[in-house]
Write a structure and sequence with these properties.
Blueprint: H1 2-10, H2 15-19, H3 34-42, H4 49-53, E1 59-60, E2 68-71, E3 82-83, H5 85-94, E4 99-105, H6 109-118, E5 123-130, E6 135-141, E7 150-156, E8 168-175, H7 178-187, E9 191-198, E10 205-210, E11 216-221, E12 229-235, H8 239-250, E13 253-260, E14 265-271, E15 280-286, E16 298-305, H9 308-317, E17 321-328, E18 335-340, E19 346-351, H10 352-359
Parallel strand pairs: 4-7, 8-11, 12-15, 16-19
Antiparallel strand pairs: 1-2, 2-3, 4-16, 5-6, 6-7, 8-12, 9-10, 10-11, 13-14, 14-15, 17-18, 18-19
Helix pairs in contact: 1-3, 5-9, 8-9
Length: 360
């Protein structure tokens, strides 16, 4: 699975180097191996794809009406298809998709792992260090990656703090006893930002806590759940635009929508199944706010698909921006594509078969 972790990291420009006032001096020599070439992506070095991979990059032909035609050049194998909006919506609806990873950077990996395992009951599924590229990954969750969503933590050597920004909201954890979990967090020296109590205009008991890096976690009181790592909340500038995008381009269902004029916000729950059994995406629109600072800590959501090429075409048709053209990664052949939603939030699609092969 090490290679897929690198695959996802290549789509994660090192936030510390891109946003710090005085980036460290970087020196590179020609990279003969895949790992070092992928590191260029991690560090945000803007090299043409053809130069980076020593091959001609795939070329996307101009859209004709509501149809996108894809062709290829060079030695990168890519499917050639023609997609109408009707084709795309049908494909998206029937694609085999689920959330795989929530990806973000942390300043103290060991302290974070300790907090997640001791206070939130997660399991450390795997951990890998890449000293030549100066980062370490850790994957934690509540079940095997073949069936459950996980958090993918990235520690960049020497970087102990990140700007979380104003756009990222929180992660959600379903627990059977919120008050008991809060007491444990307090006993372990954790920070509680909202004491247990019923949610506004509802009966579900919730609490808010903060992890050692400043990321917020909402604790939701529920019965036993097959997916305790139950959501990620992101703020958006146009709730209807976002709902439309995630329904059409990602095939998500609108599981719920609630407007709260008293507190001046609207919330929408998007996902691939009931929110008590699946991880969901919670979109929040605050009245009158159209843009947010996305910071440099939270990175992306990784999702599965049966076909990255068709997924990329659907994203383009329905208003997303492809930032990594679909195709196999050099040296490991795992097929991925990456995009930005209308608010600039990053998402990565990973081929289902390739993902399972990487876990072997």
């Amino acid at each position: 699975m090490a290679s897929l972790s690198v695959a996802l990291n290549l789509l994660t420009p090192r936030p510390s180097l891109l946003h710090s006032p005085s980036p460290p001096s970087l020196k590179f020599s020609p990279f003969p191996n895949t790992s070092r070439r992928l590191a260029l992506f991690q560090l945000g070095i803007a090299l043409p794809q053809a130069q980076l991979f020593n091959a001609e990059a795939p070329k996307l032909l101009a859209a004709e009406g509501n149809t996108i035609k894809v062709a290829t050049a060079g030695n990168i194998t890519q499917e050639s298809t023609s997609f109408t909006e009707v084709d795309a919506m049908d494909w998206v609806k029937n694609d085999n998709r689920r959330m795989l990873h929530f990806v973000y950077s942390v300043g103290d990996l060991d302290k974070t792992i300790k907090f997640y395992t001791e206070c939130l009951g997660m399991k450390l599924l795997r951990k890998r260090d890449i000293p030549e590229d100066r980062y370490t990954n850790a994957f934690l969750g509540y079940g095997p990656e073949e069936s459950n969503v996980t958090v993918e933590l990235t520690y960049n050597y020497g970087v102990n703090k990140y700007d979380i920004g104003t756009g990222f909201g929180h992660f959600g954890i379903a627990v059977e006893d919120v008050a008991k979990t809060v007491d444990l967090v307090k006993a372990k020296g954790g920070k509680v930002t909202k004491e247990p109590g019923p949610v506004t205009n509802g009966s579900t008991v919730i609490a808010m806590i903060e992890d050692p890096n400043g990321y917020n976690f909402e604790l939701l009181e529920r019965g036993p759940s097959p997916e305790p790592l139950c959501k990620v909340m992101l703020r958006v500038g146009d709730i209807d635009r976002s709902i439309n995008f995630y329904k059409k381009a990602f095939g998500m269902e609108l599981l719920g929508k609630r407007d709260n004029p008293e507190y001046k916000y609207t919330k929408a729950i998007m996902g691939y199944g009931p929110e008590d059994k699946n991880a969901v995406l919670e979109l929040t629109y605050n009245y009158g706010v159209t843009e947010y600072d996305r910071g440099n800590g939270y990175t992306q959501i990784a999702l599965s698909t049966d076909n990255v090429y068709k997924s990329a075409e659907a994203i383009k048709l329905f208003g997303g921006k492809i930032i990594r053209e679909p195709g196999p990664l050099p040296g490991i052949n795992t097929k991925i594509t990456a995009c930005l939603d209308p608010d600039g939030w990053k998402l990565v699609f990973v081929d289902n078969i390739d993902f399972l092969r990487e876990l072997e």
